[in-house]
Amino acid sequence: MDNLLKYIHSLTVFSEESWESLQPALSKKQFKKNDFLLHEGQICNSLFYIDSGYCKSYYEVDGAKKNTAFFFENDIATNISSFGSGEKSEYNIIACEPLTVVIFDKQQLFKAAKETAEIEALGRNCIRLFASKQEEFSTLFKLYSAQERLKYLEVNHPDMLQRVSLSQLASFLGVARETLSRIRKRRTLV
Amino acid sequence: MDNLLKYIHSLTVFSEESWESLQPALSKKQFKKNDFLLHEGQICNSLFYIDSGYCKSYYEVDGAKKNTAFFFENDIATNISSFGSGEKSEYNIIACEPLTVVIFDKQQLFKAAKETAEIEALGRNCIRLFASKQEEFSTLFKLYSAQERLKYLEVNHPDMLQRVSLSQLASFLGVARETLSRIRKRRTLV
DNA sequence: TTAATCCTGTGACGATCGTCACAAAATTAC
DNA sequence: GTAATTTTGTGACGATCGTCACAGGATTAA
Fold first, then answer.
1. Which of A69, A160, B101, B142 has the most crowded Cβ, counting Cβ within 10 A?
2. Domain for residue A78, yes or no?
3. Amino acid whose CA is nearest the C1' of C19
4. Which of B85, B129, B131 is closest, CB to CB, to A130?
């Protein structure tokens, strides 16, 4: 839980007592590669703090898997719509490597947040960060071409390129795998 | 303020006292068409509740304006990254029509939230909705072609098509104005 | 009402992308 | 270590898209 505590302190003021009050909402869990953290049709009742490894969210459209996000160490993974509204998830979250997470249980978290203002503030900050990240990647598509989007990742998220395979990345960037391969070739020649 | 109060009640439990405590954070403001709610380089210290009219966010890239979001009645407009982190905004928010908003002042809001748990919860819910919306439109680009994105808006946000001009919409959908014009033509013929 | 400005449609053409097909390379399983 | 599987590279080709150019229609300002 060390990483999580550091993460929390980087976000907000958090006392020893708040940390104690938060404990009932927390549980550590391991996932093997290709295990589901969240399955399409399920209701998302958790925030997943990524301790080690990484996972991704993807839609299944006409049999094809389309990646919509990757979550690495110190990220929070969740379906924010389903978590907030209680409706069924339209997509999956799956481990891409052996994965260790700390699960925030929604019901317990809300209970703790009601009693402890710092926990409520923590929840708000987690969601805010999540929203910022969504906004960042949403903007990518409106501002840049496929080639420019790749460059953006190289500059701003080089870790992602290191760990995610070309095929998986292509899906995330919204282009065919062959196209990404050719973009990469074009770029290295220039 | 009637619309705002209804909006708040649709999001969360909110007592008469909480509403009173919130007042110091609120102020009503009118914008003319093409007035800036937020200018690139400014720090965003407000949440803008849209009471009537609509506005948009856009980046200025190489002299070209690229729309990234539209905000209509009962939406919250803000730069969530700048609002959260205190860093300068990289984009603009501008009124597309005569606009009436209720401004949530950040400092006053945080002060009120510290003292009133329901206000803290309201803030969290506003941000959550904002995140859900970002996620929705972010996903659009990863799952669908330009033509399918247009269809999605027709089905899920017909109001947007009614009020936003073709040129403005094209920028939001990430295609050239001419392309959107041709997509529309293709579709009406089939 | 008239002029100026903005918005939309359309043709031409080159650039980019998606799809299919198959081979090579890398990874995984046994 | 070998076989099976997955991932990546590449050619061909048709579809879509961006850009430039210009004309007509709609809207706005005086």
1. B101
2. yes
3. A176
4. B131
Which two structure tokens, joined as six digits, stand for A79?
């379906």
Residue in A with minimal Cα distance to B119: A120
CB A170 within 8 A of CB A161: no
Q: Cβ contacts (< 8 Å) between A142 and chain B: which residues?
A: 59, 66-68, 141, 171-172, 174
- Count how many domains chain B has: 1
Residues of B in contact with A129 (CB under 8 A): 84
pLDDT grade, residue A105 (50/70/90)?
Answer: very high
* Interface with chain A: mutation pick from B44, B93, B132, highest number of A CBs within 10 Å: B132
- Burial tier of B111 (Cβ tally within 10 Å: 0-12, 13-18, 19+): middle
Nearest nucleotide by C1' from A175 CA? Answer: C17
Domain contains B149 = no
Residue B181: inside a domain, yes or no? no
Reply yes or no on whether the pLDDT at B108 is more than 70. Answer: yes
Backbone dihedral angles phi then psi of residue A77, each to the nearest 5 degrees? -105, 140
- Residue in B closest to A138 by C-alpha: B138
Q: Considering any atom of strand D, list protein residues whose CB lies within 7 Å.
A: A 165-168, 177-178, 181-182, 184-185; B 145-147, 174-176, 178-179, 182-183
pLDDT by residue (tens digit) across A122-160?
Answer: 998 998 998 899 889 889 988 999 899 999 999 999 989
In a domain, B158, yes or no: no
Any idea what the CATH number is for the domain that residue B74 is in?
2.60.120.10
- Compute chain A's Rg from CA coordinates: 18
Per-position b or e across B127-160, b if 16+ CB within 10 A of its CB: bbbbbbbbbebbbbbbbbebbebbebbeeeeeeb
Looking at chain A, the number of H-run helices and the number of E-run strands are 9, 8
Query: Which tokens hold the place of A29?
Result: 């869990």
Q: Do B59 and A135 touch (CB under 8 A)?
A: no
Report the candidate in B54, B24, B74 with the shortest Cα–Cα distance to residue B165. B54
A44 CB burial (10 A radius; 0-12, 13-18, 19+)? buried
Q: CA B83 → CA A165, B87, B105, distances in Å?
A: 34, 8, 10
Are the CB atoms for B84 and B53 separated by under 8 Å? no
Range of the domain at A61: 2-143
